[in-house]
Amino acid sequence: MFGTQSKRDLALELQAQIPILRPSIHARRANLTVKFQDLYGFTVEGNVDDVNVLNEVREKVRNQGRVWWALEASKGANWYLQPEILSVSDGIALKSSLKISTLTNAITLKRLIRKGIPPVLRPKVWFSLSGAAKKKSTVPESYYSDLTKAVDGKVTAATRQIDHDLPRTFPGHPWLDTPEGHAALRRVLVGYSFRDSDVGYCQGLNYVAALLLLVMKTEEEAFWMLAVLLENVLVNDCYTNNLSGCHVEQRVFKDFLTKKCPRIATHLEDIGFDVSLVATEWFLCLFSKSLPSETTLRVWDVLFYEGAKVLIHVALAMFKMKEDALLLTHQVGDVINILQKTTHHLFDPDELLTVAFDKIGSMTTNTISKQRKKQEPAVMAELDQRLRRLNSLKEGEK
To answer: How far apart, in Å, are the Cα atoms of 240 and each of 155, 246, 385, 396?
Structure first.
């Protein structure tokens, strides 16, 4: 696929041998900002405390890898990909004949995924557990190759926007920000824009697809991960022209913020802060522009297994973690600065996910779905009213 494919695979396979990051003694003394490269090639800026946290996280990654390998040895290779386990995780009613061991394996898998999938296993586990492998199996083997050839050279509004966004997608990355990286990302995005003309292309998808390219072993698998994400994992209409699904999700998030963090919600309303100021980017980019890459991918580990409710959990955790500081704010800008600084330095995924799942409280998929249905009419009415105003202005200009 790409010329740097072997280098990227090698980096993943040797992740257990990543050297400990050691800032200079001057940096330690002065607590200066230091730069370093993370596992997926992104240049990260942080202070010495951030470096120490990242070193601890990388040690946790190594230990978690040992846990997965030990389970492979005791339960058998690829035990977590057995159809029975996937059925349990999908919520299919258990038959009385279902073995206790299968249920135990499903519970174990859920816990394992929340603690993180080792980078070397991530492509295989994501591809299977997300449903991407099943989706790919329903079409001819040459589907992606035929699609990219068929659309090569065609120009649409989507392709023009994609070409505009390519150089702005993670600029400075050693592979993504190269002609080869741009070409691969373009093929994935353009291919999908023709696969689903209702979605076409929406800004935000470039960051999602770029990160998928870095994780998956092939460009084709990145395409299918994008497809299963948009068609099965996320809520409908998140990336359509009017972003109705994204607007619904923001309203649902605001509802749960009021329920789960009432003091924060009341204070933010008092100072005139609209959650869409941060949540729009969070939900459209799936946190890929906000969080460090390794933290984002830990969120995605759970997202591909447990579904879109994970985004609400994580968004709530962002606010919950900074509750005391947010309650002292008086300006909208102060809230944004606190949240941006928090996300930028969230190098410890366990800290975020512990708050998201243990301190926020339970939110079932069914409960969130009911909230979405409740908010849909108001969102559609608001978007319709906005469209009418826009058309009225256009008529007035004539």
So the answer is: 19, 9, 18, 27
